[in-house]
Amino acid sequence: MDIKGKPEVIVQNVVATANLNADLNLDAIAIGLDGTEYEPEQFPGLVYRMNDPKVVLLLFGSGKIVCTGAKSVEDAERAAANVRKKLSDLGLL
In angstroms, rounded to a whole number, what is the distance separating the alpha carbons of residues 19 and 13? Predict the structure, then answer.
């Protein structure tokens, strides 16, 4: 099968990791931060649905983060910075 022309490549989803370099109390974060889901019996991470940028962050007690759903690397970086600031403002970091 011959491919004619150059296929258009569009980034749909960026997955990134980050490290806050601090232990996180996921129970306290689940209470203090809106938009979270935390069921440690089913999954060890806290799920945080951020609206700006529109991404989903998985936060782990070790301070590591997985960002999914970003449309660009810049969105993933902004999400990590935003969650760091929110946790710091709440006294949870």
Answer: 20
Could you say which DSSP state residue 67 is in?
E
Contact between residue 56 and residue 50 where contact means Cβ atoms under 8 Å apart:
yes
The domain total for the chain is: 1
Give the pLDDT score at 14: 93
The pTM for the full model equals: 0.88
Extract the tokens encoding 32: 């203090």
- Dihedral angle at the C-alpha atoms of 37, 43, 44, 47, nearest 10 degrees? -30
Q: Of how many residues is the chain composed?
A: 93
- Which domain does 31 fall in, by range? 23-71
What's the rounded Cα separation, in Å, for the pair 62 and 65? 9
